[in-house]
Amino acid sequence: MQYQLIALDVDGTLLNDNYELTERTVSTLRRVHEAGSRIVLCTGRAPESSVPIMEQMGFEGVLIAHNGAATVETPGSRLLHEFSFPIGHIAGLVQYCRAEHVHFDLNTSWKMYVEHVGEAEAAMYEKYMAVPERVDDVLALTVPIVKFTMFGSQEAMDRVERQLASFDLPSSLQAIRSGAHFIDVMLKSVSKGRALSNLSGMWGIEPSSILAMGNYYNDIDMLRFAGLGIAMGNSPEEVKLAADEVALSNNEEGVAEALMRHVCPELAGQ
Q1: Helix, coil or strand: residue 147
Q2: Ranges of CATH 3.40.50.1000 domains, the chain
Q3: At 139, is the secondary structure helix, strand, or coil?
Q4: What predicted TM-score, i.e. pTM, was given to this entire model?
Q5: Residues of the chain with CATH 3.30.1240.10
Q6: How far apart are the first and last CA of the chain?
Q7: Nearest CA to 164 among 66, 238, 173, 138?
Q8: What are the per-10-residue average pLDDT scores of the chain (270 residues)?
């Protein structure tokens, strides 16, 4: 079966744990592209830190960023879809993070804002190729935002996740664990699956012609939407159960192996 659209999560899926894109994976992706499939990154990252991954693959085009809150076209800065909300809706959450010393950043479709960056945060932003803009008070910003992200150790995020269960978030917002060290707050209407549905509809591609791969909870609805949803071997059990099959892990080039089997079987064994 020819899959017309290949939707790929980035961290924990396309990249290994050293944040590397292997030569074998790049070669396979290029062959898949040459075979006629569109490749779309579907990531929690911002466009700023996603475009370099596309450039490493030798591609340009559309990517789904911020867990589906923004869909953009590269090169340039054309915004295809955006789901934003006023900063005032998370004023209470900002105050909580300040009081509990939880690091946070605010994201528009294109920019990231922080109030401070410590050593651990600086190392994290460097790994993700993100360059946040520092401001004294994020609540003084007047731009609409698409994502509010909290960052910390896994233990700290486990604690925040428990406390958010009783936090009085506006009914229009949701908090989702997008990684062991991250919790994202976005509109409830936002998801990778919805963004992928919007994009595939715009291109006239049926879900049955979509192959999607991911490794974390924020990938589940994307995996369920696609005709073939593949969870990585390093995924939590809940993610594996939501998928149609489980691939090798991100450290075993699971993306390349799965695409060889399902899109370019003639590459198997190479």
Answers
A1: strand
A2: 5-82+190-267
A3: helix
A4: 0.89
A5: 87-187
A6: 21
A7: 173
A8: 91 96 95 93 94 91 95 88 94 96 96 96 93 96 95 96 90 92 95 96 97 96 97 97 98 97 71
Diameter of the chain by CA atoms?
57
pLDDT tens per residue across span 169-226: 899 999 999 889 999 999 999 999 999 999 999 999 999 999 999 999 999 999 999 9
- Which stretches within 89-131 are classed as H helix? 91-100, 119-127
Q: Is 99 exposed, middle or buried (0-12, 13-18, 19+ CB in 10 A)?
A: exposed
The β-bridge relationship of strands 173-179 and 182-187 is: antiparallel
Region of 257 on the Ramachandran plot (φ > 0 left; ψ -120 to 50 alpha; else beta): alpha
Rounded Cα–Cα distance for residues 140 and 63 (Å): 30
Is the distance from CB of 80 to CB of 119 less than 8 angstroms? no
Q: Transcribe 169-188 into DSSP letters.
A: --TTEEEEEEETTEEEEEET
pLDDT of res. 266? 65
- Residue 267: the pLDDT is 54
**Residue entry with tokens 């009081």:** 99
For residue 217, the 8-state DSSP code is G
- To which residue do tokens 């990778």 refer? 192
Each residue's pLDDT tens digit, 113-128: 999 999 999 999 999 9
DSSP symbol at 68: G
CA 6 – CA 24 distance, rounded (Å): 17
What would the CATH number be for the domain defined by 87-187? 3.30.1240.10
Fold type of domain 5-82+190-267: Rossmann fold (3.40.50)
Give the C-alpha separation, 108 to 123, whole Å.
Answer: 22
